[in-house]
Amino acid sequence: MRRFASHLTPPPTFLKGGRKEISMNELLRQALGIVPKVSRISAEVLVSHIDRDDEVRAAWLALVSGRPAFFLGSPGVDKTGTVQAIASRIAGAVFYDELMPTVVSVEQLLVESTSIEEVPLPNGGKAIQTRDRLGKAANAHLVFADEIWKSEPRVLNILLDLARGGEVRHEGRVVKTPLLAFLAASNELPDPEGNLGALWSRMTIRLVTQPLNRAGKFHRTSSTSSWTSTRNWLTNRPRTSHGCGRTTADSAGYSTFCRHTPCWKVGLGSKKPIWR
């Protein structure tokens, strides 16, 4: 909570025992202070991410508590987009998301760039060594691992490190990351008794993401067709909430348009107004 609150408001500190610390009262005051901001961000996200209230709450819970969150749902139900929309509204937050089956090595997950350096040897010679500059997931405040159970074994070990507390092992050393929330998603569940059991047990926040319901589809359909209705193109809304009548409505709008336009003939160069 302390690390997350610092991204929304600078935490006041006081000296205690020679160290800068935050009292419980100050921490509580910070928590209450960010409530309006969290509510405002949630409302903004839900405008374009219809019927994703539970996903928004789960993402905030992961951010505040530091516990990993897992979203179970079929592809294309707006899991990644909802979390990304929240991250984009947190000042200074770095969001990293990746389809895990496409990550074939630890370097692809953590290394931003690699440089080649010359190192002097005791005998006067020189040796060539490479140095990695960490970035990507190692530099992110929010990590979203999509299709996590299909990750390579070495990549899974790094994801387990992130889920445990934000530290990763690289080149024989432990590197502290600025991670605030680790989130993952898949369209299937792992075998809890198999090799994925350790990572699955870390996912203490678990949510099933459902496709849009009837009300959500109607809201989405109404939103996407509103611009045409204001321009006299679609005269009526589609008949059904699922948009099954959209083709008919489009055809009716086009017929109305044709009735108000003149008959064009090639080569006449007519400059008549297109709308009577």
Can you lay out the helices and strands and say which pair or pack?
Blueprint: H1 2-5, E1 14-16, E2 19-21, H2 24-33, H3 35-48, H4 53-65, E3 69-72, H5 79-87, E4 95-99, H6 106-110, E5 111-120, E6 126-134, E7 142-146, H7 153-165, E8 167-170, E9 173-176, E10 181-186, H8 197-202, E11 205-208, H9 214-229, H10 246-259
Task: Describe the model.
The protein is α/β, with parallel strands linked by helices and 276 residues long. Helices cover 38% and strands 21% of the residues. The protein is built from ten helices and eleven strands. The protein has a five-stranded parallel β-sheet with strand order 4-7-10-3-11, with helices on both faces. It has a two-stranded antiparallel sheet with strand order 1-2. Helix 3 (35-48) packs antiparallel against helix 4. The N and C termini lie far apart (62 Å). Mean pLDDT is 75; it is low at 9-19, 224-249 and 264-276.
- Top CATH class of the largest domain: Alpha Beta
Largest beta-sheet details: 5 strands, parallel
- Beta-strand proportion: 15-25%
Rounded to the nearest angstrom, the distance between the terminal CA atoms is 62 Å
User: From the helix content, strand content and strand pairing, which structural class follows?
Assistant: alpha/beta
Number of separate domains: 2
The shape, in one word, is globular
CATH superfamily of the largest domain: P-loop containing nucleotide triphosphate hydrolases
Taken in chain order, the helices and strands follow as HEEHHHEHEHEEEHEEEHEHH
**CATH-scheme architecture of the largest domain:** 3-Layer(aba) Sandwich
Side by side, the strands of the main sheet go 4-7-10-3-11
